[in-house]
Structure to design on (203 residues):
């Protein structure tokens, strides 16, 4: 892990999660634990309506948490019910937490390389639908990170398990003086919950 990112991780308050949030996260812990115990691939597809903010933050932090706790065979993906673009403030927020962010392509739906370690492959960040060819077709857990996608998408083809873990949309702060603060707050909340999840997995 990069040194600045490790500092961010070590400051995460995941030991203080509420019991309500722990209950919401428990089905994801159980899914990962069963796969890990059986030495099977763990595929997580983190889904939100536009695949622009919360689903990307969740994907990146989940992949990072798996690496931090050395949980093997974990592949994290993200998608939406429609494709838009990874919102630039998401990339900026991750960069401020210690990730190395590099644009691979520009345009209306840019592609980013998001690295948490010099020696591990990057997370490739761009907006796509949950059933895009980039994502798994079967044997994955569909993690619904926003209530709109959870309510509006009753069936996810190929999902072995569907788990709602919803977060407030930082988009509400766009164009306000609080934007940077709100995005960081949401990112660190998601980070704390993903790190709690992977801290519970027995190898």
């Amino acid at each position: 892990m990069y040194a600045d990112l490790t500092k961010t991780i070590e400051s995460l308050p995941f030991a203080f999660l509420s019991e309500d949030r722990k209950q919401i996260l428990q089905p994801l812990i159980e899914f990962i634990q069963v796969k890990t115990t059986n030495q099977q691939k763990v595929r997580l597809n983190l889904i939100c309506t536009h695949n622009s903010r919360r689903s990307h933050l969740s994907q990146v932090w989940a992949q990072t948490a798996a690496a931090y706790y050395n949980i093997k065979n974990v592949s994290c993906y993200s998608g939406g019910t429609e494709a838009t673009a990874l919102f630039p403030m998401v990339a900026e927020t991750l960069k401020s937490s210690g990730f190395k962010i590099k644009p691979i392509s520009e345009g209306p739906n840019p592609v980013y390389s998001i690295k948490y370690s010099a020696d591990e492959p990057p997370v490739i960040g761009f907006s796509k639908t949950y059933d895009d060819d980039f994502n798994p077709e079967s044997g994955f857990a569909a993690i619904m990170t926003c209530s709109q996608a959870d309510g509006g998408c009753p069936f996810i083809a190929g999902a072995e398990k569907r788990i709602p873990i919803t977060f407030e949309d930082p988009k509400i702060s766009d164009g306000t003086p609080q934007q940077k603060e709100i995005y960081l707050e949401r990112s660190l909340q998601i980070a704390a919950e993903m790190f709690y999840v992977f801290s519970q997995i027995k190898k």
Q: What stands out?
A: The two ends are 20 Å apart (CA to CA). The chain has a mean pLDDT of 95.
